[in-house]
From TrEMBL:
One Gene Ontology term of the molecular function aspect: sequence-specific DNA binding
Top-level taxon in the UniProt lineage: Bacteria
Domain HTH lysR-type positions: 1-58
SUPFAM superfamilies tied to this protein: Periplasmic binding protein-like II (SSF53850), Winged helix' DNA-binding domain (SSF46785)
Keywords carried by this UniProt record: DNA-binding, Transcription, Transcription regulation
Extent of the signal sequence: none
PANTHER family with a match to the protein in the record: HTH-TYPE TRANSCRIPTIONAL ACTIVATOR TTDR-RELATED (PTHR30537:SF5), HTH-TYPE TRANSCRIPTIONAL REGULATOR (PTHR30537)
CDD domains cross-referenced by the UniProt entry: PBP2_CrgA_like
Alphabetized PROSITE patterns for the sequence: HTH_LYSR
Protein name, UniProt field: LysR family transcriptional regulator
InterPro entries given in the database record: LysR-type_TF_proteobact-type (IPR058163), LysR_HTH_N (IPR000847), LysR_subst-bd (IPR005119), WH-like_DNA-bd_sf (IPR036388), WH_DNA-bd_sf (IPR036390)
Family according to the record: Belongs to the LysR transcriptional regulatory family.
GO biological process: DNA-templated transcription
Length: 297
């Protein structure tokens, strides 16, 4: 049953007149009549006796009336609760994010989010695979990639360029590459699924095959191997931000090429009726990312 149809029926029962019920609801008498007819058609019974002088409920209408009032009361209570919670984060917030980024950036946000929003619950899935957020009922996915056309809604949050990095010990032993061709003389640490490293060289996109001395299926493994001095690695800025700050990894900047530029983006199932819990989470995340950008890269 449509709430508007039930509302019209209850108004008619109280006013005993289509015109008075219409004035009470702020609509036309024809609209009230149509809503009543729609409800009667849906239920398959006549609810109101109509005469030229008055209206009265049928026995079926008398049976329906208390239930109709209960429906309207429940609707009013639900709307009031939703309105009261409109500015707060509540309910279950389901997030998915890349593993290293989630551990380094999202996890530190969780304690304050929960403390400031007692009615909020958070379910975080860390995975380097692209998951079906609609099928899995996920509210927001944090992705690090070149944004492409999609039926989903992508909201850019911060730049996240790819970078070449190495440990200070490795560079002391092997020297610092200065040009793209120099990479051929260095052992590289390669992430599975990315045997070619993407660059912009002389205004063109190019990809060179990394000479892998070690490969792994996770960003965490590549980062650890790089810190241990195994070779050069291509990761993203936010994967190694802390290591750059503490000096365990160093940026390697080439004179004739720059690595591919990526972005951190929030991917949502739809842009309509975004829950407060999602908006509040993204505000916290954007703030953390802006603070992190103060470290120059």
């Amino acid at each position: 049953m449509q709430i508007s149809d039930v509302e019209a029926f209850v108004a008619i029962s109280a006013a005993s007149s289509l015109s008075r019920a219409a004035r009470r609801l702020g609509v036309s008498a024809m609209t009230v009549s149509r809503r009543l007819a729609s409800l009667e058609q849906e239920l398959g019974v006549r609810l109101v006796h109509r005469t030229t002088r008055s209206l009265s409920l049928t026995p079926e209408g008398e049976v329906l009336l208390p239930h109709a009032k209960t429906i309207l009361e429940a609707d009013e209570i639900a709307r009031a609760k939703l309105k009261a919670n409109a500015g707060a984060a509540s309910g279950l917030l389901r997030i998915t994010a890349p593993t290293v980024f989630g551990q380094a950036v999202i996890m530190p946000l969780i304690p304050s989010l929960l403390a400031d929003n007692p009615a909020l619950q958070i379910d975080l899935t860390l995975s380097d695979s692209i998951v079906d957020i609609v099928g899995l009922g996920i509210d927001v996915a944090i992705r690090i990639a070149t944004l492409r056309d999609s039926a989903l809604v992508a909201r850019p949050l911060a730049p996240n360029p790819r970078v070449i990095c190495a440990s200070p010990d490795y560079l002391a032993r092997h020297g610092i590459p200065s040009y793209l061709d120099d990479l051929k003389n260095h052992p590289c640490i390669v992430l599975h699924g990315m045997p070619y490293w993407p660059f912009v060289h002389q205004g063109r996109d190019v990809a060179i095959r990394a000479e892998a001395s070690f490969s792994a299926n996770s960003v965490e493994s590549v980062r650890t191997a790089c810190k241990l001095g195994v070779g050069l690695a291509m990761l993203t800025y936010w994967d190694i931000r802390d290591e750059l700050a503490n000096g365990s990894l160093v940026l390697v900047e080439l004179k004739d090429a720059v690595p591919e530029h990526l972005s951190i983006a929030a991917v949502l199932p739809t842009r309509q009726h975004v829950p407060s819990r999602v908006r509040i989470f993204l505000e916290r995340l954007e703030h953390a990312l802006k603070q992190g950008e103060e470290v120059s890269f």
